[in-house]
Amino acid sequence: MLYPENCLERLGFNEIRALIYKNCLSPMGQQLVSKMQVMTKYDQINKFLRQTREFKSILENQEPLQISSFFDIRSLADKIRVEGTYLSEEELFQMYTSLQTVFSVIRFFDERKEVYPNLEALFEHLPIEKNILRKIETVLDAKGKIKPNASAVLFQIITDLAKGEQEVRKKMDSIYKQALGNNWVADGSLTVRDGRICIPLLAENKRKLKGFIHDESASGQTVYMEPEEVFTLNNKLRDLEFDKRREIIKILIALTNELRPYTPLLLSYHGFLTKLDFVRAKALFAIEIEADMPVLVKEARTKLVNARHPLLFLSFAADQKTVVPLNVQIHENLRIVLVSGPNAGGKSVCMKTVGLLQIMLQSGLLIPVHESSEVGIFDQIFADIGDDQSIESDLSTYSAHLTKMRYFVAHATPKSLVLIDEFGTGTDPQFGGPMAEAVLEVLNNKKVRGVITTHYSNLKLFAGSTPGLENASMLFDNDKMKPLYILEVGKPGSSYAFEIAQNIGLQPEVLKLAREKTGSNQNRVDTLLVDLEREKKQIYDTKIQLSTQQNKVKNLVAENEKLKLFLEENKKSLMKEAKMEAQAIIKNANKLVENTIAEIKEKQADKVVTKQLRQNLEKVLVQNQVKEEKKEVLPAQKLDGPIEVGDWVQLNNSETTGQVLEINRDNLVVALGDLRSVIKKNRAHKISNTQARKAIQANSYSGSISEAISSFNAELDLRGMRGENALQEVEKYLDRSVMLGFPFIKLIHGKGDGILRKLIREYLKKYSQVTRVEDEHADRGGDGITYVYLK
C-alpha cells in the first residue's frame, strides 16, 4: 500500500513509467505499462524480475529474436465473434503478421529449451495453430491483397475485367486518333472524369462526335466527352467491378466464418504478444539505466551496493557525467537511517533513490545496483516529500506534514518503509524539533524501516543514542566548499550554514551577528560536526590512497610473477641451447680426434705426418677454447693507489660498479646507479674510468631489457580511438610483446556497434605470431575485450 496518493509522482516513478511506455511496440504493451502496480508477493515479483533479466540477456547477446511489429488481435477476435461480420483485407493481414510473430517467437524458445525458463512460461501449453495462417494464405498474397484466384468466380470476373478494359482502351484509342486527325481535340491527351476515360474536345466540335459530356473547362472552351461506343462498354466494366466487390466480400465472410472457432486461441495469442511487448520494454529500459537483478529476499530489509538514481543517471549520461553511487543498508538492527549534512549535498536524492528503487523492484523492474545487493519486500511504503499545503482543505505546510505523521504512526508496521524529507520543518524549530523526535521515537518503537533527512541537532543526538537508529551524513569538501555526494553512515553531518554563507560572500558583520545569536553550545556542536566531517574526509582520502597503493602493489606482484615465469622459461631455453651447443662441440671434437687417428693409421704412423695432424688438432681445440673464453666477461683490472672522492670502484668478486661520493674513515658512500650505499673500503677496489664506462654500458643493456619487461603492461586500452589509429597502436604493441616474449596480451576495445572489434580481429588474423584470440568472460566485459595469445 502506498501513502499518500501522490507518492509515486513525488518519488519519480511516473517518469520511469513514461520512459518504459516509449519502448513498447503496441498499444497493448503500453496499457500494461500504465497498469504497473507495486506488488507484495515474493513469487510474483521474482517471476517478473527474472523474465526481464532473461529478455535483457537476449537483447545484450543479440539473439535472433525478431519482434518488429504486431497488432491488436483482441479487437479482431472480438469482431469475428459476431455472426455475419467479416474482417477486411487489411485486418486479415494484421492478424497474419501478428501470428507470424507469435510462431517465430515460440520457435525461438523451443530451439533453446530451458535456457530462458521464465519467458517460456509466458506461452506454456500454447499450441502453434498454423491452419489459421494457411487459411489466410489461400485468400491473401504476400502484400496483404486478395489473390485473383481466391475463388473461381473471382478469377473469371477479374479475367473479364481485363478483357473489357483492353477493349475499351483499344476503342478509345481509335476514336481519339480519328478526332485528332479531324482537329477536333483541344490541347492535352486522354483524361479521366468521374472515373471514366474522356476525350478533351474543343467546345465548337462537341456535336461532331456522339457521346456523353462529363465535364468542361473553367473557360468553357474544352469539354470532356465519353464516346457513345465506349459508354456501353464502360457500363459493363462498372457492373463487373460491383460483381468483383460482392465476390470479395463473399470470400472474406467465408474466411471469417472459418476463423471464428479459433477465437479463444487468438485471444491467448493476443495475451502472449502483450506480455512479450511489456517484458521487452522493461528489458530495454534496464539496459538504458545499466540495471541488474539484486538478490531478492522475503524480509523487510535492503542492502544497496553501488546504487544510482535512474533518472539522475540518464540525465548525467546525456551530459557525459557520472553519478556517485550510493551504499546503504536497512535491517533489523539498523532500521532507520537519519541523513544530515549541507543543503544541496544530496540528502533528498539519497532518500529518493532508496524509495524509487524499492518501488521499481516491487513493480517487477530491474534496478541500477550491483548484483550483490539484497532487496526485500515491504507491505507499505509511506512518503512525506515536498510541500502539500492546500487552500481548499485549509492546510498549512506544517499541518500537511502532521497529517501524514498521524497516518504513519497509526498504520506503520515492521514491514513498512517510511521516507521523510526535511523532518520536522514547517514550524518553529523550538517546537518542531521535539515533535519530530517524538514521532521518530514512536516509529522506532514500532520497528518501522525508513530513511529520514533532517537538519535538527536534537534528532541527530537522539539517533546517536537510540538502538535501531543510525546517523548518516553526506560528505563535504571543506577546502573546496563543495559537496561530494557520498553517504557516510555512522556520524551526523553539519549543515555548513556559516561556511556556505561565507563562501557565497555574505557580509562578515552578518555572519558575526548570526554566530552570536546562535549561542555558544550550538556553535560548539556545529564546530564539532565540522571537525568530524573534516576527519571523515581525511580518512576517506586516506582509504582511497591506500586502495590505490594496494592496487599498485597487486599489479606489481602480478607483473613480478609474470616476469619470474618469463625468466624461468628463458633460463630453461638458454640452458637447453648451451647443452645442445656443448654436445655439438663434443661431437665435433670426437669426430676430429677419430678422423686424426684414422689418418695416422692410414699413413702407418709416419712421424712427420703424425706431427702435422697433431698440430692441426691442437689448433682447432685452441680456437674453440678462445671462442668460449671470449664469451666470458673479463673482470676489471685493479688500480694501485688510495681511493679518493670521485673515483670509480668495483665491489670485490662482483661486477657492481659505482662512484665514491664520501669517505668516512673505513667506510665509502658509493652511488650505485640511483641507489646510495655505505660499504667498507676493503670490500671494493679502484678501477679506471674506461673500465667503469664499459661495465656501466654492459649493466645498462641488461638493465634496459629487465626494465622494459617490468614496465610493460600486458593490457592496451583502445576505447575512443579511430580504426586506423587503433590498428597502428595494436601493431606496435604486438611487436613489443613478441620481442619481450609475453605469452598473451589483453586488448580493450569496448562493445559499441562492434566496428572497432571487427577491425582488430581482422588484423589479428593476418599477424603470424598470433595463435588464437578469444573474448573476456561475460561478467568482466565479454566481447568488449579480446585476449590475444602469442607464439
UniProtKB/TrEMBL annotation:
The keyword Methyltransferase belongs to this UniProt entry's keyword annotation: no
Database matches in InterPro entries: DNA_mismatch_repair_MutS_C, DNA_mismatch_repair_MutS_core, DNA_mismatch_repair_MutS_sf, MutS, MutS2, P-loop_NTPase, Smr_dom, Smr_dom_sf
Enzyme class: hydrolase
PROSITE patterns named in the record: SMR (PS50828)
Pfam families: MutS_V, Smr
Family stated for the protein in its record: Belongs to the DNA mismatch repair MutS family. MutS2 subfamily.
Name of the featured protein: Endonuclease MutS2
Biological classification of the source: Bacteria, Pseudomonadati, Bacteroidota, Sphingobacteriia, Sphingobacteriales
Gene name of the encoded protein: mutS2
